[in-house]
Amino acid sequence: MKNKKLLIGLVTVLIFVVIMYLFQQLLMPKYMSGIVEGSLIEEYYKETTKHDVIFIGDCEVYENFSPITLWEKYGITSYIRGSAQQLIWQSYYLLEETLKFEKPKIVVFNVLSMEYNEPQKEAYNRMTLDGMKLSITKLKAIKASMMEDESLIDYLLPIFRYHSRWSELTEEDFKYLFKKDKLFSNGYYMRADVKAAGTVPAGKKLPDYQFGSNDYYYLDKMVKLCRDNNIQLVLIKAPALYPYWYEQWDSQMEQYAKANNLMYINFLKLTDKTGIDYNKDTYDGGLHLNVTGAEKLSDYFGNILKTSYGLEDRRNDEKLKTVYQGKVDFYNNMKESQYKEIQAYGYLKRFSNINQ
Amino acid sequence: MKKLSLLLILLVLILSGCGKSQDTINVSADPKTHGFIFEVNGISIAMNEKAAPIIEKLGKPKAYFEADSCAFQGKEKTYTYNGFELHTYEKDKTDYTLSIIFLDDSVTTKEGITLSSSLSDVKKAYGDKFKQDKGLYTYELDKSKLSFLIENDEVTSVEYKAGDGSK
Fold first, then answer.
1. B73 to chain A, minimum CA–CA distance in Å?
2. What is the value of pTM for the model shown?
3. A326 at interface of B, judged by CB pairs closer than 8 A
4. How large is the ipTM?
5. Segments making up each domain of chain A, as ranges
6. Separation CA A21–CA A25 (nearest Å)
7. How far is A307 from chain B, CA to nearest CA, in Å?
8. B54 in Cβ contact with B45 (< 8 Å)
9. Is the dihedral of CA B8, B12, B14, B15 positive or negative?
10. B103-162 pLDDT, tens per residue?
11. Which of chain B's residues have a Cβ under 8 Å away from the Cβ of A20?
């Protein structure tokens, strides 16, 4: 009798947990259309092969570098673990998590996020943290990222955060309840459209150009983590014309790189060498590169990685060759479909609801 | 059965109960028109105010720039006029005034402060109730801020900015 009661109790709890899980899965945003950037982080877990280069950082990595170009031109395997407004502590913990799965030879970190010394916005936090697998690293990332009015439990059990979405559910929420489509090429978010850069406002005067102590704390940790794992850390500033990158910020990064024996490349100063044409190679007026710009930048950067760090050309590896053929096909199909759409409508219709 | 019913009731409570609603992800409160007012050519501009009528009155800007923030968390627009920049933010497909930044001394605050004014001019005009950090003197009024960057006893930057309720 006692055992029967216990069994009924256990089954009841189990049913409750399963129902809760299903509701949570249903209510969480799917990021399959519109703001697709929310899907970037979790797509990494579907990777079946390891990478020699891992990029970490904000949109200046996931919109400006093409891992497929690195593969096709140099046989470099790479993945971009980028997310929208990824803050430096999030980059650090994403790297810590990545090292549980693989040990890359090079980690590339985009330094724009040094401008933020504190958490900025919950919506961005969500786009980075909700996609991470549950782990101690994720817990640390959440604690470092939370705004004052946020709570840990809302991240661990997102149903508490998203419960009110029940009235906004769409067909997409049911369609992608258990499985999501692949949207990115090794973490690269492709845009094939063109919007030339015009006049970009100069940066406003700041009371203090010194990066914050929290930024440097995590940058130091990143350096140490890479050293401990025998990984070369490369600091970059992507060639985005806006937000404004101050000369004083650039000097700090140059000095930091020198003091820590790191490579630092500010691509804004290398436009002649990368060949980026801001009339053709950007889709949003110079904030992010389009696919032609990303390919030019990746070609130039790939050569630096190859010559400076002697990365092996993996194009003769049979397993990788097969895997990457699938990735190249996906990339080319995506590119072709975007160009066809531009030809048909004059713009990328699939992004029109968020950009027009 | 009774236990399962109780747990289902609990689930319903979770789904309909406490916590923040989804729409608070982007903006925390409705924009309100309060605080410091900037006046130029007889046009008054407050922060968190609908931008369209103001921009219409101001006429064609010398320069215009717009930027989609990462993952489209709103479009930021910058209108450059003689002497100042007007920045806007977007909420529910409507633009609101976010900030005004002085570009030269051809414009002044309503209380007569401009670039190159002294710190004592600022204090005389706005009083001693300010927050100071690294030479940035910030006054708050309702849901707006007015900041003066002071270098060598001289105002080198003036900015009106929307406070809580903006982006």
1. 8
2. 0.88
3. no
4. 0.76
5. 2-198+212-355
6. 6
7. 32
8. yes
9. positive
10. 999 999 999 999 999 999 999 999 999 999 999 999 999 889 999 999 999 999 999 999
11. 11, 14
